[in-house]
TrEMBL record:
Transmembrane segments: 26-47, 59-78, 90-113, 157-179, 191-211
Entry protein name: DUF1109 domain-containing protein
Domain of life: Bacteria
A Pfam match: NrsF
Keyword terms, alphabetized: Membrane, Transmembrane, Transmembrane helix
Length: 213
């Protein structure tokens, strides 16, 4: 069989890809990842008994706004990383905005706080366990994000894994907010951001093996 005939025969069996197939793949991963992370939180720690009161406070929603913004931006980035040759700059800048806002807010609060109280704001009462808890809760969404990415066509595997790790870490932060008692902006700016850095690194390390064609 000639090469041209083979290509023609293979092309005849191709089915058009649905519009929005990449987004649908990632959205399904988000739903499954959130479900897995929430189930893990409930199984290990439960949900705070005072949550009905907490959700009525401004600081609760301010804390939740950060990971929500990161999830939104990280989803856009993951969509681009799943397409060979797609431009990353717009999505990368969108991710930088909530992180920069959090770090600026942290710096502003610390500058306005008397020196003797700054460390207390940064450490809170759960600094020893927060990062480990978030990384643990990120494992279900990281698995689903990497699985979804494998169904796409990533060519920059470590970057794709880093994007999946960022998405998973932000999902874990949203779920962790149902349990976390810390209401200090400097605490979020240090330990929440550090948690994201670690989940990004974890995704980047796993991706070359997980996403290999």
């Amino acid at each position: 069989m000639k090469t041209r005939d083979l290509v023609t025969r293979l092309a005849a069996d191709l089915k058009p890809v649905e519009s929005g197939a990449v987004s649908q793949q990632l959205y399904r991963a988000l739903v499954v990842g959130f479900s897995g992370s929430t189930a893990l939180l409930v199984a290990l720690y439960g949900i705070r008994s005072d949550m009905p009161q907490l959700i009525l406070t401004t600081m609760f929603w301010a804390r939740l706004a950060f990971p929500l913004a990161v999830v939104f931006s990280a989803t856009r980035l993951a969509e681009r990383l799943g397409r060979p040759g797609a431009q990353l700059c717009p999505a990368g800048l969108a991710i930088a905005l909530p992180v920069a806002a959090m770090l600026l807010a942290t710096g502003g609060v610390l500058i306005a706080t008397p020196p003797g109280y700054r460390l207390q704001l940064v450490l809170g009462t759960t600094w020893r366990t927060t990062v480990a808890d978030v990384v643990l809760l990120s494992l279900p969404p990281l698995a689903t994000a990497l699985h979804a990415m494998k169904q796409l066509a990533p060519t920059r595997l470590m970057l794709a894994g880093a994007g999946a790790g960022l998405l998973a870490g932000a999902q874990a932060l949203i779920v962790y907010s149902l349990y976390c008692a810390e209401m200090s902006i400097p605490f979020w700016g240090v330990w929440y951001v550090l948690s994201l850095v670690l989940t990004i690194g974890l995704g980047a390390v796993l991706a070359p093996v997980w996403l290999r064609w």
